[in-house]
Amino acid sequence: MGGVITGFAIIAVVIATGYVLGLLGSLGENGREVLTRLAFHVATPALLFTTLAEADLGVILSPPLLVTALATLAACGVYLVVGAFARWGVGPTTIGALCASYVNAGNLGIPIAVYVLGDASLVAPVLLLQQLTLSPVALTVLDIATRDSGEDARPSVLSRVLTPFRNPVVVGSLAGVTVAATGWTVPQAVFDPAVLIGNMAVPAVLLAFGISLRGAAMPGRGPERTQVLVSVALKSVGQPLMAWLLAAFAFGLDTDDQLHVVVLAALPAAQNLFTYASRYGTGVRLAREAVLLSTVLSVPVLTVIAALLG
Question: Is the pLDDT score of 151 beyond 50?
Fold first, then answer.
C-alpha cells in the first residue's frame, strides 16, 4: 500500500513543480514546447535505447505478458470502435485509444513494481510490449494522418512504409532491441552519455505536463468530455478487469501473477502520451485530461487491487 502512495507522490511533486514554473513564467512562453521537443526527439529515444538494450527479450514469450497484451488490445480496440462510430477523427481517436490502453510503466510503473510487487523487472515486459507494438503503430498512424491533413500532402507508398523509421522514439526502441537481440556490448563511452540524456526524459515530460495545467479547465468538462470519460473508464476499470478475467479464468495464473498483471494494467495513462499529442498537434486536451483523471483514479483502484489480490 505504501508503494502506491510513494509512486504517486514522486510524480505529483514533479508535476507540481512544472505547474509553479508555468505560473511564474520561469521558462518563458515556449517552455512547454521546448521540454516536449526535448523529450520526444532526444531524451525519450535515449531512455528507451538504454532500457531495452539491457532487457531480457525472453519475457516476450511469458504467459503474463500475453495476458497484458490481450487486455491492452481489448481496451484499445473498444475505444477505436467507439471512436469510429462517433467519427471523432483519426488523430484524436488514436490518442484516445492510447490513453485507454498505454500504461505509465516507466516513471510510475517502476516505483510501484518495486514497492508493491517487489520486483522492478516485472515492468520490462510491459515496456517491451508498448514500445515494440503500440508506439510504432500509433506514431505511424499519427505521422500519416497529420501529414495527409496538409493541403499538398501526397506521401508515396515508400514514404508511408518508411514513416516509422523516421520517428526518433521508434528508432530508439528498435536500436535498443537490436542490441539486446545480438548481445552486443555498447561501449561505455556511448552508453553512459545515452543514460545521462535518457534520465532527462521523465522529468522533462512531467514538467511539461505540469506547465500545461496552468490555466487549464477542470478535466472532463470540455468539448472532448465524452472521449475523455470513455478513455478513462477503459483505462481505470476496463483494462484491469479484463486482465484479471484473462489471468484467472483463461490462463489460470497463480495469485501472484494475477496481482502482477492486474496492477500493471491498472496503472494510469502514461504522461508521454501528452508529449505525442503535443508533437502532432492533435488530441492535446484529450491527452492531458485523460492522463490527469486516470492518474487520480488509479490511486483508489490500485489500493483496492492490492487489498483484494495482495
Answer: no
